[in-house]
Amino acid sequence: MPAPAPRPAPEPTTTTTSSGAASSAGSEPARAPAVESGTPVNAKDCKDAGVRVGEAAFSRIADAVRCLVNVQREDVGLQRLAGEEHLTSAALNHARDMAARNFFSHYAPEPAPAGVDPGERIANAGYQWAVFGENLAIGQRTALQVVKEWMGSPSHRAQILNAEVTEVGVGIVTGTDDKVRWAQAFGRPVGTEAPPTTSVAGLSKARNARTGFAAHAARRGRVVVVRGRVPGGSSGARAVRVTVQRGRRAVSRTIRVLPGRSFSVTLRRPGGTRVTRVVVRLLGSSPARLALTLR
Question: Which of 290, 293, 233, 239 is nearest to 263 (CA)?
Answer without folding.
Answer: 239
